[in-house]
Amino acid sequence: MNTAILDDVPVPLLKRLSWQDWLYSLILVIGAVFAYVQYGNYMDVYEKSFLFGAAAVFSWLGWQWKPLRMLVIGVGAISLFAISLYDADLGRANQAFLLKYLISSQSAVMWMNVLFVLAMLIYWFAMFTRSEFAGKFASSMTWAAVLMGLVGLMVRWYESYLIAPEVGHIPISNLYEVFILFCLITALLYLYYEQRYNTRQLGGFVLLVVSAAVGFILWYTFDRQAHEIQPLVPALQSYWMKIHVPANFVGYGAFSLAAMVALAYLLAERGILATKLPALDTLDDVMYKAIAVGFAFFTIATILGAMWAAEAWGGYWSWDPKETWALIVWLNYAAWLHLRMVKGLRGPILAWWSLVGLLVTTFAFLGVNMFLSGLHSYGAL
Amino acid sequence: MKPAITTSKQFYELLSSMRFAVSLLTVIGIASIIGTVLKQNEPYANYIIQFGQFWFDFFEMLGLYDVYHSAWFLLILLFLVISTSLCIYRNSPLMLSELRTYRETATEKSLRAFSHKHAYQSVHSFDDTCQNLQQFLTLRGFRFKTVRHADGGELIAAKAGSYQRLGYIFTHAAIVIICVGGLLDGNVPFKVQELLGYKKVETLDIPESEVPAVSRLSIANLSFRANMTLPEGTSSDVAFQRMRDGYLVQELPFRIELKDFRIEHYATGQPKSFESDLLIIDPELKEPLAHTISVNHPLIYKGVAIYQSDFQDGGTKLKLNVWGLFSTQSKPLEVDGTIFKKAKLGEGDDALTLEFNDFRMFNILNLTGDGKGKPQNVGPNVTFKVRDTQGQAKEYVNYMQPLLLSGRPYFVSGMRETQQEDFRYLRIPADEDFTIDGFMRLRTTLFDESQHAEIARRFAKVAFGERSSGDLTQQKFEASVVQLLDAFAKGGYTRVADMIEKSVPEAEREKAAQTYLKIVNGAAFEAYNLSRERSGKQAESPNEENQQFLQESLNAISDLYFYGAPFYLQLTQYEHREASGLQLTKSPGKNLVYSGSVLLVLGIFAMIYIRERRIWLLVKPQTNEVLFAMSANRKNRDLDVEYERYKAQLDKVLRTR
Ligand code: HEM
């Protein structure tokens, strides 16, 4: 047989895995089993399936995208270390040196904020000077920011249980917490595409939205004391929240990413920074991929939201303003995909459209809570 | 010549076109936005106030107060269903044939016209070349069909990712299924019956048993979403559907009884859970079914889902003290009240009706001055209206316990004249025992004209001190103090200001005002001590504490004239009774919507993540030339990248021995 036929033949996923992959998954499974043995009595059947589901999903994601493995392990290790420093006493957050300055939830989130802004500046610097080194450094900073943000959320999760066991809940339940989630997901999506397409030049653009979100977090923290952990209102005490919210934010994050790439596209198309930015059709492709991912997840999130609403409010669709705006966002991107896929439209129109799409999305995410009232009242500013 | 296009054909073309569907979707989007900006299903009176009669009528005609259930909105949805169905009907055969076909009829000429094509010279024999190429394709996940041409050449037509085509069918079928499910659960059947005149929305506030049959929906009703408010210990077998400016009565195939309703709170006072212990009473059951529902944990019985949706008062019994604010009576009157019931105060033209509207045991308020501190529970309050014989009413909210405002305790009562206003608050300072008695004592003494002379005498004694001799100046002084006290007792600071305006020339008013204020304060302090003595308490000498109390009391007394009611209601005891708000829904379309949703997700993933690609490899006889062409139904970067890869790989396959 002609051996050249075999060159570069796609190998099935399981055969591609290295021992590191298996070790990584083993650690996740051991962690899940440990948590189950320790706390299984307090979990309902959904929480148990989420626990093992998370181990499976993060295994798979780590196999697909190797850098994620280090992140997951790192977040786990640092979070466990931080938790051990607490010694079951919330007051230690302001006493123990490492907690106070580094890895209490509040400090870790602050580090995330700082690192994101620094990373953005370095990305811009790297683009203008075409410095490979600075670009790599900016990527590392972004990874570090994601690491700190995730540690912040993990530790916050633990802290909520220290306030009182009944108060404890996953930290994706209010506007402050989901803004952190938004920063993390957007940055992670970006890092994925950065590696896939080798496009460090886009970092400065994408981190622009992330930095805007950081600005919001800072204002919300210092002006409104929003970082204080509040107990969950009854409507939010549901396992649905644990899947509905993350799915939604993959959508929001991906749409934001697409909008920032669209911005780069529009600039490059006008000859601004054109020599420093990736080729137009690469930008176009990243934009499309991001919107496709966002659309898929946003669809899932909306459906999950409907199922949750059916359980909490007594109807899967109530035309509540938040629901309605989710539908509008969804229709908007469905139209975008139609034009691209059916009519084969490319170029600046779609780029403008995804920029406007970001406005619509932002309104659905923030504006509805600020200007319209409805059943989603937990998100009020 | 083209055949003539008939109108019905044209209509069909229009209905099934993507342009039409997209226009419908745009209209739905815009209509939805209106529905989020304009608050839906408010009482009609609110809209009239907001827009005025003319626009109110206009908007009502357009159905803007319930956009999502208006006839035109439902009609658009119906058209969307029809349009999408036709679109599927029209495109599916094409999609399915695309899914099956290998396009093996491609000719050399057409392949050479491809944008992604390449020609090679194979170093292998004809048969080996064909075999290698087939293996090459199989290993990369392509399926293929081979055709032997008349000239002896072989065409291998291959494809991968054909299931992408199912994505189209799945997503679009899902839209139809979801819309049908939604329309089923919407109130379309009622709309039709209403149009035909079989049913009518009831707009009068009458007992349920008197609601006529045209406004009742039987248990046979396919789908509904209705509410039921059950006070503890009662039961019911009907629910209410609010609709526009009225309601409908929905009959149920069973009876629900509320045994108990519970709210649990976190340590900080925020609600932690709402739970209702229900009893389902159904003749078909041997014994009643007991079940506890809570938020996120409904009960489904006979296809009707029963949700914990809200709660309200169920007729709490109250005991209240009525403090006459302008009388000189030093003891309050006691009255009993019940939430949602009325009580009468006074006789004849001055009679006032108390309408008790709400009682809340927990009130989480943020009382810190800058709003940055923690909200906390400030205890019970009662909301009531005071209506006079003309029917005019003002609304009040009174807190049972003193609230700490900037560190000092006050009895707080809010007043407003219409629902649209914010409450304005009267703050009565609590005395050193945290009761309202100190203030009321002081107020009665100040308002009691028979005491004014005594107060003036005492005050003069203090004011003149050593020199006090009862001479003419002192008597004059006393007289003016009495005059001032009379004015204050009749209308607070406002009345005193009027007095100054009348009797003092403009240039001296400011100075006079200061003097008068000092006198009122000083006299009031004597009244304070006098009132203490009369109730057997020690007189005090002025200190910061009682001066502040005095000042705040005088401010409060002045505010009484704007309070709008001649009494202050002080809640003293209550016997709490709650009512649970249940939502009852029957939604047979739910399963359709959910299966449509699953189909939608599958379809979207198929459309986005399965990429249909086709490869043609034409091996020509004798020369062993190989023509490679590639296409995808979506022209994008992925195709370019993959084409380049295969091109290079094929080069290796065909040119290495
Ligand atoms: C509601 C009425 C709709 C109509 C009449 C309609 C019509 C069409 C038509 C005619 C195509 C072309 C199929 C082709 O030739 O490939 C198409 C493709 C598509 N539609 Fe729709 N559509 C509708 C709604 C939607 C919605 C709401 C979505 C959202 C998910 C959607 C997603 C798509 C996608 C992604 C494609 C590309 C399919 C492909 O190229 O394989 N459609 N649609």
Descriptive notes:
The complex is a heterodimer of chains A (381) and B (657). Chain A is 74% helix and 0% strand. Chain A has three domains: 19-37 and 44-60; 65-227, no CATH class; 247-381, no CATH class. Chain A has helices at 13-16, 19-39, 45-64, 67-86, 97-103, 105-129, 132-163, 175-197, 203-224, 239-269, 280-312, 321-341, 348-371. Chain A is mainly alpha-helical. In chain B, the strands form six sheets. In chain B, strands 14, 15, 18, 19, 20, 21 and 22 form a seven-stranded antiparallel sheet that branches. In chain B, strands 1-26-25-3-2 form a five-stranded antiparallel sheet. In chain B, strands 4, 6, 7, 8 and 9 form a five-stranded mixed sheet that branches. In chain B, helix 4 packs antiparallel against helix 7 (164-185) and helix 10 crosses helix 11. At the A-B interface, helix 11 and helix 12 of A face helix 2, helix 6, strand 8, strand 11 and strand 24 of B. The structure holds protoporphyrin IX containing FE. Protoporphyrin IX containing FE (HEM) sits between chains B (18, 21, 80, 83-84, 87, 91, 168, 171-172, 175, 604, 607) and A (334, 337-338, 341-342).
* Total number of beta strands of chain B: 26
Compute the CA-based radius of gyration of chain B. Answer: 42 Å
**Which runs of chain A of at least 5 residues are low in confidence (pLDDT < 50)?**
377-381
Biggest interface, chains and residue tallies: A-B, 59 and 67 residues
Strand content of chain B: 25-35%
* SSE order of chain A: HHHHHHHHHHHHH
Strand composition percent of chain A: under 5%
**Biggest sheet of chain A, in brief?**
none
Largest beta-sheet details of chain B: 7 strands, antiparallel
Relative helix content of chain B: 40-55%
Which descriptor suits the 3D outline of chain A?
globular
State the helix count of chain A.
Answer: 13
**Contiguous helical run count of chain B:** 15
Alpha-carbon distance between the two ends of chain B: 57 Å
Share in helix of chain A: over 70%
